[in-house]
Amino acid sequence: MSQHFNIEIVYKHVPRLESGSKESISYLEEHGYAVIKKALSSDEAAKTLELLWDYLEGLGTGIDRRNPSTWGDDRWPTCAHGGIMPSYGIGHSEAQWFLRGIPNVKKAFAKIWDTDELLTSFDGVSLWRPWNINPEWKTESGQSWFHIDQHPISKPGKQCIQGLVNLLPTSEEIGGNVIIPGSHKFFKNLPDEYEERLSRLPLDIDHFRFPNDDPKLSSSKAVMCHMEPGDLLLWDSRTIHCSNSGSKLDNDTTDLIRAASLICMMPKELSSEDILEKRREAVEKLISTTNWTNSFRNADEFPLILEAQDRNKYKWPKKPTLNDYQKSLID
Ligand SMILES: O=C(O)CCC(=O)C(=O)O
Ligand SMILES: [Fe+2]
Asked: Is 236 in the pocket of ligand 1 (CB under 6 A)?
Protein backbone atom coordinates (compact mmCIF):
# COMPACT_ATOMS: atom_id res chain seq x y z
CA MET A 1 0.00 0.00 0.00
CA SER A 2 2.40 2.72 1.10
CA GLN A 3 5.58 2.56 -0.97
CA HIS A 4 7.93 4.18 1.52
CA PHE A 5 7.30 1.54 4.17
CA ASN A 6 9.19 -1.68 4.43
CA ILE A 7 6.13 -3.28 5.99
CA GLU A 8 3.40 -4.16 3.57
CA ILE A 9 -0.16 -3.55 4.71
CA VAL A 10 -3.11 -5.22 3.00
CA TYR A 11 -6.60 -3.80 3.18
CA LYS A 12 -8.76 -6.84 3.69
CA HIS A 13 -12.36 -7.95 3.91
CA VAL A 14 -11.97 -10.30 6.86
CA PRO A 15 -14.91 -12.29 8.28
CA ARG A 16 -17.36 -10.04 10.13
CA LEU A 17 -18.53 -12.21 13.01
CA GLU A 18 -21.59 -12.04 15.25
CA SER A 19 -21.15 -10.45 18.67
CA GLY A 20 -20.75 -13.17 21.28
CA SER A 21 -20.46 -15.97 18.70
CA LYS A 22 -18.20 -18.98 19.15
CA GLU A 23 -16.61 -18.10 15.82
CA SER A 24 -15.61 -14.68 17.10
CA ILE A 25 -13.85 -16.25 20.08
CA SER A 26 -11.93 -18.84 18.10
CA TYR A 27 -10.96 -16.29 15.45
CA LEU A 28 -9.67 -13.97 18.17
CA GLU A 29 -7.71 -16.77 19.86
CA GLU A 30 -6.10 -17.80 16.64
CA HIS A 31 -5.38 -14.45 14.97
CA GLY A 32 -5.17 -12.10 17.94
CA TYR A 33 -7.99 -9.94 16.55
CA ALA A 34 -11.55 -10.24 15.25
CA VAL A 35 -14.11 -7.99 13.60
CA ILE A 36 -17.58 -8.03 15.14
CA LYS A 37 -20.33 -7.21 12.72
CA LYS A 38 -22.63 -4.34 13.69
CA ALA A 39 -22.04 -4.19 17.42
CA LEU A 40 -23.89 -0.92 16.90
CA SER A 41 -26.63 -0.46 14.33
CA SER A 42 -26.04 2.16 11.65
CA ASP A 43 -28.35 4.50 13.53
CA GLU A 44 -26.49 3.96 16.79
CA ALA A 45 -23.16 4.59 15.06
CA ALA A 46 -24.53 7.81 13.53
CA LYS A 47 -25.86 8.89 16.90
CA THR A 48 -22.50 8.26 18.58
CA LEU A 49 -20.83 10.44 15.98
CA GLU A 50 -23.36 13.24 16.52
CA LEU A 51 -22.70 13.01 20.25
CA LEU A 52 -18.96 13.20 19.62
CA TRP A 53 -19.54 16.42 17.72
CA ASP A 54 -21.62 17.68 20.65
CA TYR A 55 -18.62 16.97 22.85
CA LEU A 56 -16.21 18.79 20.51
CA GLU A 57 -18.46 21.80 20.12
CA GLY A 58 -19.02 21.77 23.88
CA LEU A 59 -15.29 22.29 24.51
CA GLY A 60 -16.05 25.94 23.93
CA THR A 61 -13.11 26.56 21.60
CA GLY A 62 -15.27 27.43 18.61
CA ILE A 63 -15.41 24.11 16.79
CA ASP A 64 -18.37 23.94 14.40
CA ARG A 65 -19.14 20.52 12.92
CA ARG A 66 -20.31 22.12 9.68
CA ASN A 67 -17.21 24.21 9.16
CA PRO A 68 -13.80 22.51 8.78
CA SER A 69 -12.06 25.87 8.96
CA THR A 70 -12.87 25.73 12.70
CA TRP A 71 -11.14 22.37 13.16
CA GLY A 72 -7.59 23.70 13.46
CA ASP A 73 -5.19 22.69 16.23
CA ASP A 74 -5.90 25.97 18.01
CA ARG A 75 -9.42 24.65 18.76
CA TRP A 76 -9.05 20.88 18.46
CA PRO A 77 -8.26 18.94 21.65
CA THR A 78 -4.75 17.60 22.20
CA CYS A 79 -4.21 14.31 20.39
CA ALA A 80 -1.88 11.44 21.13
CA HIS A 81 -0.41 9.15 18.47
CA GLY A 82 -2.81 8.26 15.70
CA GLY A 83 -5.17 11.17 16.41
CA ILE A 84 -6.39 9.68 19.68
CA MET A 85 -8.05 12.15 22.07
CA PRO A 86 -7.38 10.85 25.55
CA SER A 87 -8.45 13.62 27.92
CA TYR A 88 -10.63 16.64 28.72
CA GLY A 89 -13.56 14.49 29.84
CA ILE A 90 -13.82 12.49 26.62
CA GLY A 91 -13.98 9.22 28.59
CA HIS A 92 -17.21 10.38 30.20
CA SER A 93 -18.70 12.15 27.22
CA GLU A 94 -22.27 11.28 26.41
CA ALA A 95 -20.96 9.68 23.22
CA GLN A 96 -18.69 7.21 24.97
CA TRP A 97 -21.28 6.39 27.61
CA PHE A 98 -23.91 5.93 24.92
CA LEU A 99 -22.00 3.20 23.19
CA ARG A 100 -21.01 1.52 26.45
CA GLY A 101 -24.71 1.27 27.18
CA ILE A 102 -25.44 -0.83 24.10
CA PRO A 103 -25.79 -4.47 25.18
CA ASN A 104 -24.51 -5.86 21.89
CA VAL A 105 -21.11 -4.29 22.65
CA LYS A 106 -20.87 -5.91 26.06
CA LYS A 107 -22.00 -9.22 24.59
CA ALA A 108 -18.79 -9.41 22.52
CA PHE A 109 -16.65 -9.06 25.66
CA ALA A 110 -18.88 -11.23 27.85
CA LYS A 111 -18.31 -14.23 25.63
CA ILE A 112 -14.55 -13.71 25.69
CA TRP A 113 -14.42 -13.75 29.49
CA ASP A 114 -17.36 -16.06 29.99
CA THR A 115 -19.05 -13.69 32.41
CA ASP A 116 -21.56 -10.85 32.29
CA GLU A 117 -19.89 -9.19 35.25
CA LEU A 118 -17.76 -6.72 33.37
CA LEU A 119 -16.34 -3.25 33.92
CA THR A 120 -15.85 -0.71 31.19
CA SER A 121 -12.76 1.36 30.50
CA PHE A 122 -13.13 5.14 30.38
CA ASP A 123 -11.07 5.78 27.30
CA GLY A 124 -11.18 8.14 24.36
CA VAL A 125 -11.65 8.25 20.62
CA SER A 126 -9.64 8.51 17.45
CA LEU A 127 -10.90 11.17 15.06
CA TRP A 128 -9.17 11.94 11.79
CA ARG A 129 -9.66 15.29 10.13
CA PRO A 130 -9.60 15.59 6.31
CA TRP A 131 -5.92 16.25 5.67
CA ASN A 132 -6.55 17.36 2.10
CA ILE A 133 -7.63 20.61 3.80
CA ASN A 134 -4.60 20.80 6.06
CA PRO A 135 -1.72 18.34 5.50
CA GLU A 136 -0.74 18.69 9.16
CA TRP A 137 -3.90 16.84 10.11
CA LYS A 138 -2.51 13.64 8.63
CA THR A 139 -1.89 11.20 11.46
CA GLU A 140 1.14 8.98 11.99
CA SER A 141 2.05 6.11 9.78
CA GLY A 142 2.19 2.60 11.11
CA GLN A 143 5.90 2.48 10.64
CA SER A 144 6.41 4.85 13.53
CA TRP A 145 4.37 3.18 16.21
CA PHE A 146 3.78 -0.55 15.90
CA HIS A 147 3.20 -1.53 19.51
CA ILE A 148 1.53 -3.74 22.06
CA ASP A 149 -0.50 -2.42 25.01
CA GLN A 150 0.58 -4.86 27.68
CA HIS A 151 3.78 -4.93 29.70
CA PRO A 152 5.54 -8.20 28.80
CA ILE A 153 6.96 -8.65 32.31
CA SER A 154 4.38 -7.30 34.73
CA LYS A 155 1.38 -8.68 32.83
CA PRO A 156 2.11 -12.15 31.46
CA GLY A 157 -0.43 -14.13 29.44
CA LYS A 158 -3.85 -13.23 28.10
CA GLN A 159 -5.18 -10.34 30.15
CA CYS A 160 -7.01 -7.83 28.04
CA ILE A 161 -8.94 -7.62 24.80
CA GLN A 162 -9.20 -4.07 23.48
CA GLY A 163 -11.93 -2.74 21.25
CA LEU A 164 -12.66 -0.01 18.79
CA VAL A 165 -16.11 0.79 17.45
CA ASN A 166 -15.85 2.08 13.94
CA LEU A 167 -18.29 4.89 13.15
CA LEU A 168 -17.57 5.78 9.51
CA PRO A 169 -17.02 3.74 6.34
CA THR A 170 -13.41 2.54 6.03
CA SER A 171 -11.22 2.38 2.94
CA GLU A 172 -7.65 1.74 1.96
CA GLU A 173 -7.31 5.39 0.92
CA ILE A 174 -8.37 6.64 4.34
CA GLY A 175 -6.37 4.14 6.36
CA GLY A 176 -7.14 2.85 9.83
CA ASN A 177 -6.10 0.29 12.37
CA VAL A 178 -3.37 -2.16 11.39
CA ILE A 179 -2.88 -5.56 12.96
CA ILE A 180 -0.09 -8.11 12.61
CA PRO A 181 -2.15 -11.31 12.63
CA GLY A 182 -1.02 -13.94 15.10
CA SER A 183 1.56 -11.65 16.68
CA HIS A 184 0.10 -12.17 20.16
CA LYS A 185 1.94 -15.47 20.10
CA PHE A 186 5.33 -13.71 20.18
CA PHE A 187 4.51 -11.96 23.45
CA LYS A 188 5.88 -14.57 25.81
CA ASN A 189 9.36 -14.33 24.27
CA LEU A 190 9.62 -10.56 24.55
CA PRO A 191 11.24 -10.44 28.02
CA ASP A 192 14.20 -12.43 26.66
CA GLU A 193 14.29 -10.71 23.33
CA TYR A 194 14.09 -7.16 24.65
CA GLU A 195 15.71 -7.48 28.04
CA GLU A 196 17.54 -4.15 27.82
CA ARG A 197 14.61 -2.12 26.41
CA LEU A 198 12.18 -3.63 28.88
CA SER A 199 14.43 -2.84 31.80
CA ARG A 200 13.74 0.81 30.96
CA LEU A 201 9.95 0.40 30.71
CA PRO A 202 8.21 1.05 34.04
CA LEU A 203 6.17 -1.97 35.07
CA ASP A 204 2.93 0.01 35.08
CA ILE A 205 3.34 1.34 31.55
CA ASP A 206 1.47 -0.95 29.19
CA HIS A 207 2.82 0.38 25.94
CA PHE A 208 5.78 -1.13 24.19
CA ARG A 209 6.91 0.03 20.77
CA PHE A 210 8.79 -2.15 18.35
CA PRO A 211 11.74 -1.01 16.28
CA ASN A 212 10.94 -0.95 12.57
CA ASP A 213 13.36 -3.66 11.69
CA ASP A 214 11.87 -6.22 14.06
CA PRO A 215 11.17 -9.25 11.85
CA LYS A 216 7.94 -9.87 13.78
CA LEU A 217 6.44 -6.87 12.00
CA SER A 218 6.67 -8.74 8.74
CA SER A 219 6.01 -12.20 10.17
CA SER A 220 2.65 -12.21 8.43
CA LYS A 221 1.11 -9.58 6.23
CA ALA A 222 -0.16 -6.65 8.27
CA VAL A 223 -3.91 -6.26 7.78
CA MET A 224 -6.14 -3.24 7.77
CA CYS A 225 -9.66 -4.60 8.21
CA HIS A 226 -12.53 -3.38 6.14
CA MET A 227 -15.26 -2.33 8.57
CA GLU A 228 -18.77 -0.99 8.23
CA PRO A 229 -20.03 1.77 10.53
CA GLY A 230 -20.99 0.07 13.79
CA ASP A 231 -18.48 -2.77 13.46
CA LEU A 232 -16.32 -3.50 16.49
CA LEU A 233 -12.68 -4.43 16.08
CA LEU A 234 -11.34 -6.53 18.94
CA TRP A 235 -7.68 -7.27 19.52
CA ASP A 236 -5.62 -8.88 22.22
CA SER A 237 -3.38 -6.31 23.96
CA ARG A 238 -0.48 -8.65 23.15
CA THR A 239 -1.14 -8.36 19.43
CA ILE A 240 1.15 -5.95 17.57
CA HIS A 241 -0.89 -3.09 16.11
CA CYS A 242 -1.03 0.62 15.28
CA SER A 243 -2.95 2.88 12.99
CA ASN A 244 -1.77 4.03 9.62
CA SER A 245 -3.12 6.91 7.62
CA GLY A 246 -3.70 6.34 3.93
CA SER A 247 -1.96 8.10 1.11
CA LYS A 248 -4.64 9.79 -0.90
CA LEU A 249 -7.91 11.61 -0.33
CA ASP A 250 -10.35 13.21 -2.72
CA ASN A 251 -9.66 16.91 -2.95
CA ASP A 252 -13.22 17.72 -2.06
CA THR A 253 -13.34 15.74 1.21
CA THR A 254 -14.74 18.06 3.85
CA ASP A 255 -15.81 15.71 6.62
CA LEU A 256 -14.05 13.60 9.21
CA ILE A 257 -12.47 10.62 7.48
CA ARG A 258 -12.23 8.30 10.46
CA ALA A 259 -14.06 8.09 13.77
CA ALA A 260 -13.30 5.23 16.11
CA SER A 261 -14.43 5.00 19.72
CA LEU A 262 -12.12 3.04 21.96
CA ILE A 263 -13.83 0.68 24.34
CA CYS A 264 -12.67 -2.16 26.52
CA MET A 265 -14.43 -4.37 29.03
CA MET A 266 -12.77 -6.71 31.51
CA PRO A 267 -14.06 -8.98 34.28
CA LYS A 268 -15.06 -7.20 37.48
CA GLU A 269 -13.39 -9.75 39.68
CA LEU A 270 -9.95 -8.57 38.51
CA SER A 271 -10.27 -5.17 40.15
CA SER A 272 -9.26 -4.52 43.74
CA GLU A 273 -11.42 -2.38 46.04
CA ASP A 274 -8.80 0.35 45.74
CA ILE A 275 -9.18 0.38 41.95
CA LEU A 276 -12.97 0.33 42.22
CA GLU A 277 -12.80 3.36 44.47
CA LYS A 278 -10.59 5.21 41.99
CA ARG A 279 -13.03 4.30 39.21
CA ARG A 280 -16.00 5.71 41.14
CA GLU A 281 -14.09 8.88 41.70
CA ALA A 282 -13.15 8.95 38.00
CA VAL A 283 -16.82 9.04 37.08
CA GLU A 284 -17.50 11.85 39.55
CA LYS A 285 -14.53 13.87 38.31
CA LEU A 286 -14.82 12.89 34.63
CA ILE A 287 -11.34 11.37 34.63
CA SER A 288 -10.48 9.41 31.50
CA THR A 289 -8.31 6.27 31.62
CA THR A 290 -6.54 3.75 29.41
CA ASN A 291 -8.11 0.50 28.24
CA TRP A 292 -7.27 -1.34 31.47
CA THR A 293 -10.10 -1.59 33.97
CA ASN A 294 -8.08 -3.35 36.68
CA SER A 295 -5.26 -0.83 36.85
CA PHE A 296 -5.71 2.89 36.99
CA ARG A 297 -3.89 5.47 34.89
CA ASN A 298 -5.33 8.94 34.77
CA ALA A 299 -5.23 10.00 31.12
CA ASP A 300 -5.44 13.66 32.13
CA GLU A 301 -1.95 13.17 33.53
CA PHE A 302 -0.44 11.75 30.38
CA PRO A 303 2.74 13.76 29.68
CA LEU A 304 1.35 15.13 26.43
CA ILE A 305 -1.65 16.56 28.27
CA LEU A 306 0.40 18.02 31.11
CA GLU A 307 2.67 19.59 28.51
CA ALA A 308 -0.18 21.14 26.53
CA GLN A 309 0.16 24.86 27.16
CA ASP A 310 -3.49 25.55 26.51
CA ARG A 311 -5.03 22.65 28.40
CA ASN A 312 -7.05 24.89 30.68
CA LYS A 313 -8.97 26.46 27.86
CA TYR A 314 -11.23 23.46 27.28
CA LYS A 315 -14.64 23.31 28.84
CA TRP A 316 -15.29 19.79 30.04
CA PRO A 317 -18.60 18.01 29.44
CA LYS A 318 -21.16 17.88 32.19
CA LYS A 319 -21.39 14.77 34.33
CA PRO A 320 -23.34 12.14 32.39
CA THR A 321 -26.65 10.82 33.64
CA LEU A 322 -26.26 7.07 33.64
CA ASN A 323 -28.95 4.42 33.63
CA ASP A 324 -28.67 1.28 35.76
CA TYR A 325 -27.12 -0.71 32.96
CA GLN A 326 -24.39 1.87 32.44
CA LYS A 327 -23.83 2.15 36.19
CA SER A 328 -23.30 -1.59 36.44
CA LEU A 329 -20.19 -1.15 34.29
CA ILE A 330 -18.47 1.15 36.78
CA ASP A 331 -17.94 -0.97 39.90
O1 LIG B 1 -6.45 4.08 16.24
C2 LIG B 1 -6.14 2.91 16.25
O3 LIG B 1 -6.65 2.09 15.51
C4 LIG B 1 -5.06 2.42 17.18
C5 LIG B 1 -5.52 2.47 18.57
C6 LIG B 1 -4.59 1.86 19.54
O7 LIG B 1 -3.47 1.58 19.31
C8 LIG B 1 -5.15 1.56 20.86
O9 LIG B 1 -6.26 2.00 21.16
O10 LIG B 1 -4.50 0.84 21.61
FE1 LIG C 1 -2.70 0.35 20.99
From this structure: no
